[in-house]
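Course assignment 3, question 2. Fill in each field.
Student: A.L.
Task: Predict the tertiary structure for the chain below.
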Amino acid sequence: MPDIKTAAKESDWPQRLQVPAQPHSASRVRAFVRKKADAAGFSDDDIAEIEVAVGEAVTNAILYGQPRGGGGSTSGSSETEEDAIRVEVGLEAACFYIEVRDPGPGFDPDTVAEAGPENGDALGGRGLYLMRALMHHVAMSRDEQGMRVRMERTVPGAS
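Answer field:
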């Protein structure tokens, strides 16, 4: 496993990507994050888990994070600067993080029933469950710019 210092220089971080709130954007974000996770030294198995988590966050942003309800439209009508999903991938010491921001009103994650093994019949919440299960830390917050999901995973071999 490459040392974190040789795998990725801190000067190369953070990296940012902005995508429209459209279904095709999820695969673009996953590919972007895959490349950055590989540069940080993660194994293929770790990268697959990170991709699932980020895919869930971006899908939620597409479906629920648009202030004018444009989420997921295939017509292209919601592709404005205001509706964009912003992704930041960074490396801070031994922490690889991904932030997904959308301009929507957000939600209180404590009010959503997670669809985990003990609550398999829940309508929704599966994405939150997967993000929390696959990443080492997940935090969600709202501010005047919208909703932010920050997911973190410790870089392998970092002490």
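Instructor remarks: The chain has one domain: 4-154. The CA atoms of residues 28 and 61 lie 14 Å apart.
Grade: pending
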